[in-house]
Specification:
The structure is a homodimer of 208-residue chains.
Chain A (H helix, E strand, L loop, with lengths): L6 H17 L5 H8 L4 H13 L3 E3 L7 E3 L15 E4 L14 E5 L1 H4 L4 E5 L15 E6 L8 E6 L2 E10 L2 E5 L8 E4 L5 E13 L3
Antiparallel strand pairs in A: 1-2, 3-4, 5-6, 6-11, 7-8, 7-11, 8-9, 9-10
Helix pairs in contact in A: 1-3, 2-3
Chain A binds a DNA duplex (30 and 30 nucleotides) through helix 3.
Chain lengths: 208, 208
DNA sequence: TTGAATACTGTACAGATTTACAGTATAGTT
DNA sequence: AACTATACTGTAAATCTGTACAGTATTCAA
């Protein structure tokens, strides 16, 4: 646990946090002195020395506006908390499943997938044997080509569908993953066709 | 539209953005000069004057580290962008799938699910008919009870498993979703049993 | 009652920093 | 050919800034 600040020190520390948050710059000691009506900069220096000793800030020696607020006081403003939801590992026998020791990592779509990804809601049953159900979101990495046999979002005449791709000569075969469906053949000289991207993830929200 | 920066001006502007983003402070003109090998600070001043004239920054007169980057250039650093990856809707005929107009919303686990959720990696094939595959992450909302027939994470004698739950009297039936597997019966008077939470989502990362 | 922490004033100075002014040179526009 | 913008060097003054040192006063714990 960190040593508590006195009320005056807290005021000054809060002012520094406010400056960074609202004005986007660290104040100088003279600016702090002016704010609090101190007639001497050394008043600020004394307070900062105490605040620093207690671990709330550090200072870049010699640098102007060199007060550096410790990481743990940036809530959401700058050093973002760990993103996403915790991935729990195997629980040791008897240990509560929520034990922090068991956190293997964190799951977050924007961390897992980068800038070039988008999500698309799947309609229909044509890919259920590939584990992609009606209503699922597929995560798609934008790329113009995929290897034969890979699952991709294909756009045929402006219509987007998720299918397994098999390109051969002047034709593309869009293969569903459901025994009740037949592959679709697209003639590249007739239809406008392109690959929007490769399906790299599936997400399903379970209701009920 | 804003006047474009020259490549040199852009470099300097980018460096300032980097400083703010990574080091958390605005550089002084001397720090910029040192970074770019300028022998005169006035080189920096000239560039800044140009960058300011074009509207990318303003300057607090007389203040050290007084460069103020214009609001519209804080991407993610301060004024947080929308979280998550874009969910694209139906594309209008012929419209490019990446058109911003078609963004229906954004998908992000920490937004979709709240604090009381965690993820768990599934091992085994026992739930494949429920669309939960080996290696998938299930998203679990922590709660001590579920309705019969719902899928949950059950902890039996410290061992966590994902199954459909059927509680009846002094027994719990853990029902797999795979015809090759048989339901497991847990005697509550013999085994330590509790529900870790309800499975409310599934996420699969597709490799290959 | 001695000491340490807090909470200030006041002064001073070295070095950091902005800003200004005087140049040089090149490239593109009018 | 004159003008403007870009892209620098060099110098120097004005002011900003952190840091140090010398005090004063109060409070609280040992």
């Amino acid at each position: 646990m960190m040593k508590p600040l006195t009320s005056k020190q807290q005021e000054i520390f809060d002012f520094i946090l406010d400056c960074i948050k609202n004005e986007n710059y660290t104040p100088t000691m003279r600016e702090i002195a002016e704010q609090f009506g101190f007639k001497s900069v050394n008043s600020v220096n004394d307070h900062l020395t105490a605040i620093e000793r207690k671990g709330y800030v550090s200072r870049r020696h010699g640098a102007s506006r060199g007060i550096v607020v410790s990481d743990e006081f940036f809530d959401g403003t700058d050093s973002e908390d760990e993103p996403g939801i915790p991935i729990l590992g195997k629980t040791a026998a008897g240990a509560p499943i929520t034990a922090i020791e068991n956190v293997e990592g964190r799951l977050e779509l924007s961390e897992l997938y980068g800038e070039e990804h988008f999500a698309l809601r799947v309609e229909g049953q044509s890919m259920i044997d590939a584990g992609i159900w009606d209503g699922d979101y597929v995560i798609v990495r934008q790329q113009p080509r995929v290897e034969n046999g890979q699952i991709a979002v294909a756009v045929v005449d402006g219509e987007a569908t998720v299918k397994r791709i098999n390109l051969k000569g002047g034709e593309v075969e869009l293969i569903p993953e459901n025994e009740n469906y037949r592959p679709i053949l697209v003639d590249l000289s007739v239809s406008e066709f392109y690959i929007a991207g490769k399906v790299v993830g599936v997400h399903r929200v379970i209701r009920s």
